[in-house]
Amino acid sequence: MIVDRLEAMAILLRVVDKGGFSAASRDLGMPLATVSRKVAELEAHIGTRLLVRTTRRVAPTEAGTAYVASARRILEEIDETERVAAGEFQAPRGELILTAPVLFGRLHILPVVTDFLAAYPEIDVRLLLSDRNLHFVDDHVDMAVRIGTLPDSSMVATRVGTMRRVVCASPALLAAHGTPQAPADLARMPCVSFDFLSPAATWSFRPGGTGRTVDVPVRPRLSVSTAEAAVWAAVRGVGATRVLHYQCAEAVRAGALRIVLANFEPEPAPIHLLHAGRGALPSKMRVFLDFATPRLRVGLASL
Length: 303
Fold this sequence. Notes:
Layout lengths: L4 H14 L2 H8 L3 H15 L4 E3 L4 E3 L1 H25 L7 E7 L1 H18 L3 E7 L13 E5 L7 E9 L1 E5 L1 H7 L12 E5 L7 E4 L8 E4 L1 E6 L2 H9 L4 E5 H9 L4 E3 L8 E8 L6 H19 L2
Parallel strand pairs: 3-4, 3-5, 8-11, 8-12
Antiparallel strand pairs: 1-2, 5-14, 6-14, 7-12, 7-13, 9-10
């Protein structure tokens, strides 16, 4: 039996990525029977089972997990080789897939992207706005915006700025409870906790002029999982909240919130553009990096 292994690998990856044969069949525009047969032929050729059906989806076996990772790498290298032959590494064209946090992406990345599209008419951009960190390989991402300290990895990071972590509260709340002069004063104020930045019951501060960080217990009347919800609740006087500056900047400008304890803020969170460090950088990514970096640095420095 002759198996077109590259085609079968691509079909296998689509089944894994989509979580099932039916979803892969629809995505590929290929009959379900053909998808199943191609995977079965590949398993027979290798001599081991690559996929197992669970109650909710299809998942790779232990051997399948290793094979899928290798197959994905092989297909990416082939795709990269074809792009070199087609001139993509010389002429900036093709689709560029970017990801960024939802609100940050809307406020700071989308304006840069629209200008970039005007400057590079042969490049199309797919901007994936998500508050979870998308996976470069699994989600087919070329470049990502990351806010916060980066883990050690093989990724290449270009720093474009920093973002303050601020405590803010409504004028009505401050009138009722007083404006805190030190982090310890938060103990007498209701708070709204945004769990992404810190554990619900403690907030970190850095006393002005010192390099040490102190954790201060707070009393969260409300804990939420998004910054938008935290800001909304703070505007309505539920409690003081701690978010990244860009997340509350509009409410602060409107006078709906006031920033407090500015002299005790921790180190600003770094902001990077991140991309995989393996191989040559396609020109569509290189020109976006060159285009976006100075613009983001200027925009973020003004916050």
